[in-house]
Amino acid sequence: MKKHTxxxxxxxxxxxxxxxxxxxFIASNSSQILADEFRGTLNSVxxxxxxxxxxxxTAKFEYxxxxxxxxxxxxxxxxPDGSIVKYKxxxxxxxxGVGTTIDYIADPNSTTPLVVTLTAxxxxxxxxxxxxxxxxxxxxxxxxxxxxxxFYVNGTFTTTKYKPGYYGENYGYIAxxxxxxxxxxxxxxxxxxxxxxxxxxxxKLGTAIPFILRNGKKKFNGTINQSxxxxxFNLIGSFQLNPGTTTxxxxxxxxxxxxxxxxxxxx
Length: 267
Hints:
single chain; 267 residues; mainly beta; Immunoglobulin-like; Jelly Rolls; six-stranded mixed sheet; 21 strands
């Protein structure tokens, strides 16, 4: 049997002919080419007619992320001699969909990259399939409550359920001279959003409570107004952070509470 070297690591090949049906099945259902004829990792393949008169489209997508929801957009895909009539999406957990855009809800606790396959089909039935892994850091989301291991205080901290709108089982008040700390690990250098939740206590909680965010040699300072927007996570800032241990410290000024924080990658 004649062997064809069609795929190599990080390469793109265009092919046509009688083997296309088998190749299309393999390309659409796996990132690994297992047969002897195909070796390496599939990143992209274009499939045309046997004569090659119809040029294959070029599949391309961009994505944005809000919380755990990704929005994928293939509108920048193109076809040199016609138009694209169908977009097919496939994800490594078995989720599939069609359309120029699609929303996908990722597992916030995933430790593996999100693998996305887009297939663009043109009006002459030519196909281009692209395959992309989105780094695990792009899925990063972490919540640390005042009862979690990553939270600790230096001083006096009194927990209560007095006011509504807190996260988890309770929240606490910081006494004079006390510092509340949330400690966590950053997996990858990039920009992260940090949010904080406090109970609903209008016009009573502090309006300029100081915080310090320490990340290696980096230090960021800011203030938080807890007298408004209680009962939800509020963005306190976006920060370019390096991998490693990071600590958010809150210091009492006025009536100050400590409850939960949320960290997400901003990609």
